[in-house]
Design brief:
474 residues, alpha+beta, seven-stranded mixed beta sheet, 24 helices, binds adenosine-5'-triphosphate, binds magnesium ion
């Protein structure tokens, strides 16, 4: 494997290891990614001895200004070399107690260290020792599993997953990222241990879920999460989308598989994690809004609105950030039906202005979501929608160029209204503001101070207000 060790750090480490008489290897994810030719930024070095001391010596050899970050609790040390993070750890042996994912750690051999790794493909090591530099040490046939595309634990999977249940999420995440299959016995052990996921913090779970969402085909991961029973525990709202009811011979689509298709489709258009989350959540309220009537068949009235209302609870539960990212997802879920409705009718300027006003700078992301949402098997229907969306996009562009609605602030604000009519804050101000905004969005007046001022005077009069200032006073 010598030909793989092109990174200059390996030579430096090998020299020091030789001088110090330390057995040293590159191990784990970096070796896996090297062999799979995947981009990888963190390099893990394991040494039979002190990882921290080795790191300090390597840093010194690289140059005087290289800083080592030391994590004494974990017995690890990290330094940066160019863009890469090099992590050093002493070989260790781990044993687990039943109620914690934190193991009891002792010093160990390379073999002990490989035994504690989660999957055969993650247990590969390459020697940096002078005697056998570049030799692959592969006690569990990880190389074969890599060639055959298999995720499998090195030791008894029941014990491996029970020891550290996060590994169940990792198995499914790797299966998704690498498009590998999980070995039957390994998958059965996930099913058997699913309840153990409860001892894992939600932050770690969501980290893995986000990696699934950021992969090129997230549906693989969500289907595995579902089949294993993990999804029901970690994200029950998504499970509720499953199933298809038929009444009087009329069925509706299975919203779980539809959602996964939308999520897969949106990966072609965006790497924005939050837009992908919006795709995952866009129909989340369909189960609770589902109704059947003989006249209209299945309906999901207001599922967009109810969905938006569910987002904060879901974000809190999953420990996703409760900040502007959440608001963004909420907004997209809320608005996701608007472009479709728009494209089904005649695309009027007024409807386009309102959409621009409500979506603001997120209008392009909203259109991306809506395009991904068209999953019909009927290609004629798909084409019709896509063409209509083209039209909507064109119209959005024209109107934005003409009227600049995206970041539109009504030209007459509350302050002007109060001064003109000598008012203190009260409901009339809101009424007048809304009236002006609506008139502009409906195209009754232009987005212009003079016209808005005139309209304000008219509306004020209607409300019985008396103007004490005129336009010249502003
Ligand atoms: P990625 O970097 O894509 O998240 P990775 O496999 O490199 O994947 P890291 O967290 O960087 O994951 O861990 C590096 C290595 O440490 C893994 O390849 C594996 O050998 C080991 N490892 C990480 N987490 C666990 C775990 N929960 N149980 C056992 N071994 C683990
Ligand atoms: Mg890694």
């Amino acid at each position: 494997m010598k030909e793989y060790l092109t990174h200059p750090i390996f030579g430096i480490i090998a020299d020091i290891a030789k001088k110090e008489g330390l057995e040293t290897y590159v191990i784990g994810g970096y070796v896996r990614d090297l062999l799979l030719r995947r981009q990888s930024k963190d390099i893990d070095i394991v040494t039979v001895g002190s990882g921290i001391e080795l790191a300090q010596k390597v840093a010194k050899a690289i140059g005087p200004r290289v800083r080592v970050s030391i994590f004494r609790n974990f017995g690890t040390a990290m330094l940066r070399y160019g863009d890469d993070e090099i992590e050093f750890v002493g070989a260790r042996k781990e044993s687990y107690m039943r109620n914690s994912r934190n193991p009891i750690v002792e010093n160990g051999t390379l073999e002990d260290d490989q035994n504690r790794r989660d999957f055969t493909i993650n247990a590969l090591a390459i020697s940096l020792n002078e005697s056998d530099f570049g030799t692959l040490i592969d006690p569990f046939n990880g190389l074969t599993d890599m060639e055959e595309g298999i995720i499998r634990t090195p030791l008894d999977p029941i014990i491996t997953f029970s020891d550290d249940p996060l590994r169940m999420m990792r198995a499914i995440r790797f299966a998704t990222q690498l498009k590998f299959d999980i070995w039957d016995e390994t998958f059965e052990a996930i099913c058997a241990n699913k309840g153990r996921i409860k001892i894992i913090s939600r932050e770690r779970i969501i980290d893995e879920m986000n990696k699934i969402i950021m992969s090129s085909k997230p549906s693989i991961g969500f289907k595995l999460l579902d089949q294993s029973g993990l999804l029901e525990i970690i994200f029950p709202e998504l499970c509720r989308l499953k199933g298809r009811d038929v009444v009087q011979g009329i069925g509706h689509k299975d919203n779980f598989y539809h959602t996964l298709e939308v999520l897969d489709r949106i990966t072609y258009s965006t790497d924005n994690l939050w837009l992908r989350w919006a795709a995952l959540l866009h129909d989340i309220a369909k189960p609770m809004t589902k109704r059947f009537s003989s006249e209209s068949g299945w309906t999901f009235h207001s599922h967009n609105f109810m969905g938006a209302k569910m987002i904060p609870g879901i974000f809190r539960q999953l420990k996703l950030p409760l900040n502007e990212k959440m608001k963004y997802v909420q907004k997209l879920v809320d608005l996701h039906m608007r472009p479709i409705v728009l494209s089904e009718e005649e695309v009027t300027d007024s409807a386009v202005r309102r959409l621009l006003f409500d979506a603001g700078d997120d209008i392009d992301d909203l259109m991306t979501l809506c395009e991904a949402d068209i999953t019909s098997k009927n290609s004629e229907k798909v084409n019709r929608y896509m063409n209509n969306f083209q039209l909507v996009r064109q119209k959005l562009k024209e109107i934005e160029e003409k009227d600049a609605i995206r970041n539109f602030q009504p030209p007459v604000d509350g302050d002007v209204i109060m001064k003109t009519f000598n008012l203190t804050p009260g409901r009339e101000i809101g009424i007048i503001k809304t009236y002006i905004k609506d008139s502009i969005l409906d195209g009754k007046i232009r987005n212009d101070f003079k016209e808005a001022f005139q309209l304000m005077l008219e509306k004020g009069k209607e409300l019985g207000l008396i103007a004490v200032l005129s336009i010249e006073d502003f």
